[in-house]
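Many introductory courses stop at the sequence. We go one step further.
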Amino acid sequence: MLVNLKFFDLNARGLKVMPLGILPKISHLQYLTVYWHSNATVVDEEEIASLKELETSAGHFDDVGKFSMYIKSLENRRVACYKIQVGMWGDGSGFFTFRLVGKRVIFENCNLRRGDESLVLPNDVQFLNINSCHDLRSLCDVPSLNHTSELQCVSLNECEGIEHILSFSSCTLPLLQTEKLELWGLDNLSVLFWKEKAASA
């Protein structure tokens, strides 16, 4: 086994699951990507969390719970650069990893609404993509956004439930300081910023 391996770029389009037991044996990894134009490459959250020296990573979790468990396991450790895909993907044709830049999380077909308190975002996420997550009415339905500190860009794409982006009366988000907001295919979007009327005396 390559116990001193530091760079592992697994370019395997047909790979379905990262075999268990491999990552703990190459624990000195600093760079790890385990997908490339693949629609089902899954990373075990406990095994990737065991890589204490990891600086750059890219991978795919198949559900929000596993992703959140991984983020919690990082504790105070910071990964300098990452791209994490979460959820069920179509044919995978829209996602490529020619190079990794910044800190990005992408959700596809996930349940992200406020009732699911298990969702934990990295505090240092810079780019957030939310695609086809139809249960959301606004970004206020993602409470962990309140704890991010470096958010630069938010992209909402084909989320059928989105009616507004923010509600000033019910949430305060770092989105107010973000540099870029991308809205695509939000057929039910009626207003950008919702302000509830004050109750009459």
